[in-house]
């Protein structure tokens, strides 16, 4: 096989509608990035520039490359042009000959082009038609309720749906060569791909069954394989079956290691010509979506290597608004942060893109299971013959591409298309179209190319058209949005015993540092100003944030204080939900909050800002997703009656542990009750034995007498878990909303020690109890081992902070800022 890469060629682009001058282009990439590089548009993320760049979607764009083909390449019998990703309505021309027309962003194409090539100079030109023109002229009868597209009908084109706008993302309908493009030349035959099936024998070897797929049938091929574990050759021989006598199994993060074997396969055809090589990394594991009858209804859990694993994680959206040309570096920051927060699964959401090989490489390496949506989201889709044919080709291409991945846990047909359209789907014609696409067309395609990985028709789905919360307590997966969209109390998370929660969330504002990347500090950064409103894509988003913040906290003294409170509120909501779902284990076996990351700087549900800064939520996730974690649950909640009088209830506090590490452990559960002024009122401890998959209430505290004596607004409950004498988990419970608690102001002592060329050790000691103590180094990039924690009086709290370039100790001390909840009033 000879490969002629075209991506590094001298590409150029132009506005084909206006027939503007040609300018240099970068491939892979997109027209927005190229226009910005030539300063033909302003920074799309700055201010409200998004609104001034939407004319781009109305134009046709043309890309051209001149490249040379060596004469010896033309001696091969077959030469093909391979385009891994064209976005989207493309006419491909080679030396003046139309090679193909495409209208699906998610299919990789391969076209025979030898008869149009010549030795020496060749010209490849790709014209991308306006997606909006396509939408206006195709499937005109498909008129449905719009959910996220402000213009409408984005579902009639097979293109990244969130390009058309979402409730966390901008509208940039782009075009271009978004993935690799190249020529491949070969003679005789070609090894296209290899299907690998794993047979795990109880207590014995793992057998790999290889099914090579050729461009042309040839039963006389002799196959040579080599399986390596690092530099060690595990197996080498002839045939299509490999026995691994002492297999090292791949596990999700927190359950074991992630060994990846390298499998190489080459063939000798019946005419003696070589075929291949084909090379992939494999993780040896079994994985099933276990749905067996139980006392609650039907389980919904992932079982890996025979062990049920509670799915801890978040939903993944595209790493950038402009997905063309993203690299491993663009993914690893946030995926590594997911593992650092004790996550073991990410859900690739269905309104984005099927991610690149680098994304799945990282998930394989890090032990992040992938719930993989097919790229359909929210709004109803067509089901005409041409659309279904395109979707079948798309699914076949993507399933074949990803089926070998150790991280791949599930294929899901769509995101919320059923749940967002329950009324519309009562229409028989609409339901027939929906069923034709997600229940009749896609399942057999997935099964034909990946018979191992389960298919789930939608998320959420309960196995039937009954989408009620009551049914979600019995079976299937749930998106729970009564908290946020319906503005229900946060305590409502605890009302439901869902089997698996694949979406739930609460928005917060990004940090002042991230906001400064799109608006001028002190000028346009008011959350209700035009710039910040443009970077809030949920219609009621700011109002809902303020609603929830006002229920829990006092009125903030500044914009920065409001941002901080919004992030604390997000922590409270997500921790309440996750703690509840983990306490339900094994009835509930998954909690995936919405969302992990951002695609541009914005107010959103993310726990990692677009700049990579961790919000308070991500630091909290590291704690509430810990393998061994404690939580405290108050048995009541506060009510407000006529006259705005508070009627709080609840005097009992349950002390829980949850544990999902593979090996049993013993430790000690500690608890204490403090007066907010500092006095310790109660303290005790007990031994605990922890088992994998166990959630247990060890102790119920009756605080009635302390409440009567001191008032619930003055009490702080502290619970901690020690393993081998080390505190591995700790949480604080307030018995009233923090706005009613009289936190004291006090002094904080700070020690700073430079422990390595990139690391500083910080130690904080306070004279008073500080709730959600936070520190920052404005103007610096850094990552801390912990932040937004509770600081108890007289106790030294140490934190490790890593910097790409560590400033001097004096600089750090001068620039360090720290504050806690009381400082926001």
Notes on the structure:
The chain has 825 residues and is of the alpha+beta class. A six-stranded antiparallel sheet has the order 3-2-4-10-7-8, with no helix packed on it. A six-stranded parallel sheet has the order 29-28-27-26-25-32. Helix 10 (541-552) packs across helix 11 (559-583) and helix 11 (559-583) packs parallel to helix 12. The longest helix has 25 residues, at 559-583. It is globular and about 90 Å long. It starts with a strand and ends in a 6-residue tail after the last strand. 45% of the residues are buried.
Walk me through the topology:
Layout lengths: L1 E4 L4 E6 L7 E2 L6 H7 L23 E9 L8 E6 L2 E2 L2 E5 L2 E6 L6 E4 L7 E9 L2 H7 L38 E2 L3 E6 L4 E10 L5 E9 L7 E8 L2 E7 L2 E4 L16 E8 L5 E9 L4 E4 L2 E2 L2 E2 L2 E4 L2 E3 L1 E6 L11 H13 L4 E4 L8 H10 L2 E5 L11 H18 L5 E5 L15 H22 L5 E2 L12 H4 L5 E2 L21 E3 L8 H4 L14 H5 L6 H12 L6 H25 L6 E4 L22 H9 L3 E7 L3 E4 L3 E4 L3 E8 L5 E11 L4 E11 L3 E9 L1 H7 L4 E9 L2 E9 L13 E9 L2 E8 L3 E7 L6 E2 L4 E3 L5 E6 L6 H7 L1 E3 L6
